[in-house]
Design brief:
Elements (H helix, E strand, L loop, with lengths): L1 H14 L5 E11 L6 E9 L2 E5 L7 E6 L4 E4 L1 E6 L8 H8 L4 E6 L2 H16 L8 E6 L18 H8 L4 E7 L1 H5 L3 H12 L3 E4 L6 H9 L2 E4 L5 H9 L3 E5 L7 H11 L6 E4 L5 H7 L2 H10 L4 H8 L1 H6 L17 E4 L9 E4 L2 E5 L2 E2 L34 E9 L6 E9 L14 E6 L8 E7 L7 E4 L8 E5 L2 H14 L2 E6 L2 E7 L11 H17 L7 H8 L7 E4 L2 E4 L4 E2 L3 E4 L1
Parallel strand pairs: 1-4, 1-5, 6-7, 7-8, 8-9, 9-10, 10-11, 11-12, 12-13, 18-21
Antiparallel strand pairs: 1-2, 2-3, 5-14, 14-15, 15-16, 16-17, 18-19, 18-29, 20-21, 20-23, 22-23, 22-24, 24-25, 26-27, 27-28
Helix pairs in contact: 4-6, 11-12
């Protein structure tokens, strides 16, 4: 305690101009997220925190940086992200997001937790103090997401959640889908109470809920939602006190529509924030990270200051951390960026703790860390797996089947119904009608189950695509035109211990290895991007026209996103929260 008091005393002396600061930023335009002002200022930094605004010049500083009249903006905050779906470790991810001005992530690491439980979760966040951004945990609430409807590698029950909630990096209970609250499921209500006892907020996932259901959801202390697709949905959530995270990921393109609605209606933005949720590394490098959301807001007609507030102080307040983050004010961490143009979000300099974390689009590399060897050995499919396991038997001449009908640029889908011809007692895919087979293979070595259904939207003319990233259970999911290529694609992922694969005519055309939990690569970002470019190009050669086919593939099996999902146990009616038959009628 004595040492802390001494450090605190030194900081206060620097704030009062009684001792030199560590760093003095001069000649800048301060974007004040509290008052909405943009005004000339200088900023002093001491001990990694903002010490003073317009400090006494006589106090001096160990280092002075002339900012050349640029705009000083607080570091951006991602209100909800699954790091694993960037395909990078946190160490590699820093090199990608920090140059875009993101200095804080609120991470729901439910993906690695579903694969490897608490061990996987803590391995991801271990040594996070060495990262060039701040990593906070939204403690996963759904491990597994759909008990009794899927097989996972890890489990986090109420006891584990309560223990994890006490960790200093914990900021919330991770996203909780509606069925857990509306069905009054005791295990999840206990997790909510654990978060409340720890003084944390509870993140929502209010997909598909109408106004009446939202009342019960909000009463259950679910404080936010990142699943809005329309402006009306956004408005309905705000009306019951549920904050909105406007999401812009790789396959979920909701931002422009929502922000144009906010701008055209002049809606107050205090309870609107930004998140990426799930965004592949290529899209971050090409478009930006939270900076892209901010740019969308500005382009939609929202003022630059308001857009910046949505990415900074709004998020800090929501997570009850505004005394530490979200503004350039005394006592807060010195996480900030310099922008040459307030309407074009391209930082020239990014600071974390008052130290340069990125300059002119380039971040200093972070040394890789060692992860437990067990996390590189998580894909175990039966040696006996064969083409027969992918077959859909039927003893009639024709069959009316449910079809997962994809909606472009969204993770939600519709249930369609199509007639299929039966050949030799089996229902094959029908690529000419864009009706492909979709299969999930249990990959934890627990039961070896395989389930199959049909999907429309990939437009593969031949071959198969496979992924070990399949929310939230992360079993192997395969889409294809024929059983042989689908089997080969699954086997390729076992060889890689996870990743993506593209197969055509009995040959692996391209693959990308993600051996860390079957979710992430331990390679640097440029190498991961090169592998992803190869598999995306191979998918396009097979006829797939999607911008992010493997991101779309990773969401098809999700049993909590309407209307249909597919797990190793079968086809899931999401709203009814139960397994439903694939074949509805035969003739």
């Amino acid at each position: 305690m004595k040492e802390r008091i001494q450090q605190f005393t030194r900081f206060l002396e620097a704030a009062g101009g009684r001792k030199p600061a560590d760093l003095l930023l001069t000649n800048l335009m301060l974007v004040d997220v509290y008052t909405g002002e943009i005004r000339p200022a200088s900023i002093s930094v001491s001990g990694g925190r903002i010490a003073a605004i317009d400090p006494d010049p006589a106090a001096g500083a160990k280092e002075v940086l002339d900012c050349g009249g640029q705009f000083a903006v607080p570091g951006f905050m991602d209100a909800h992200v699954h790091i694993e779906t960037t395909l990078l470790t946190p160490e590699a991810l820093g090199e990608v997001i920090v140059p875009w001005g993101t200095t804080t992530l609120m991470a729901d690491a439910m993906e690695i937790a579903n694969v490897a439980g608490e061990e996987g979760l803590l391995a991801l966040t271990d040594q996070s103090e060495k990262l060039p951004f701040r990593l906070f945990l939204e403690i996963p609430s759904r491990v597994p997401t759909a008990p009794g409807l899927e097989t996972t590698g890890g489990i986090l029950g109420p006891e584990e959640v309560r223990r994890l909630m006490e960790r200093p990096e914990s900021v919330s209970l991770g996203e909780l889908d509606p069925s857990k609250v509306l069905d009054l499921r005791e295990e999840y209500l206990e997790k909510i109470l654990a978060a409340m006892d720890a003084g944390r907020v509870c993140n929502g996932h209010a997909i598909g809920l109408g106004p009446r259901e939202l009342n019960m959801y909000a009463a259950g202390h679910l404080t936010d939602d990142h699943e809005c697709v329309t402006y009306q949905e956004l408005l309905e959530r705000l009306r019951v006190g549920i904050a909105v995270f406007i999401r812009e990921g790789s396959s979920e393109r909701n931002g422009r529509t929502l922000l144009e609605g906010v701008a055209s209606h002049g809606l107050p933005t205090e309870h609107i924030m930004f998140c990426t949720d799930d965004k592949h590394v290529q899209d971050i490098v090409r478009e930006g990270h939270i900076s892209y959301n901010v740019q969308l807001a500005i382009d939609a007609g929202i003022s630059p200051v308001q857009a910046i507030q949505m990415a900074t102080i709004n998020t800090a307040r929501h997570f009850r951390m505004e005394d530490q983050l979200g503004s350039i004010t005394p006592g807060r961490f010195a996480d900030l960026m310099l922008l040459p143009d307030l309407k074009r979000i391209r930082p020239s300099l990014v600071l974390k703790d008052g130290r340069i974390a990125a300059r002119d689009g380039k971040a200093s590399p972070v040394p890789p860390k060692r992860y437990p060897e067990r996390l590189f050995e998580t894909v175990h499919i039966p040696p006996s797996l064969s083409e027969k396991d992918f077959a859909i038997p039927c003893q009639a001449g024709q069959a009316l089947c449910r079809v997962i009908d994809l909606i472009p640029d969204q993770i939600i889908n519709r249930e369609a119904r199509e007639w299929f011809s039966v050949w030799d007692g089996l229902i094959p895919a029908d690529p000419e009608r864009d009706l492909l087979k979709l299969s999930v293979v249990e990959r934890y070595g627990k039961n070896g189950r395989v389930s199959s259904a049909f999907v429309r939207g990939f437009r593969l003319t031949s071959g198969a695509l496979a992924s070990s990233v399949s929310h939230d259970h992360h079993n192997i999911v395969v889409v294809g035109s024929n059983d042989h290529d689908m089997l080969l694609a699954a086997r390729e992922l076992e060889r890689l211990q996870g990743g993506f694969a593209c197969v055509y005519d009995g040959e692996v055309k391209a693959s990308a290895a993600l051996p860390l939990g079957g979710l992430m690569s331990s390679l640097p970002a440029p190498e991961v991007m090169a592998q992803m470019d190869c598999v995306n190009h191979a998918a396009a050669e097979l006829g797939c026209q999607m911008a992010a086919p493997f991101m779309t593939l990773s969401f098809i099996s999700l049993p909590t996103v309407p209307e249909l999902g597919l797990t190793d146990m079968g086809l899931i009616d999401v709203l009814a929260h139960q397994i439903c038959p694939l074949i509805l009628e035969t003739k």
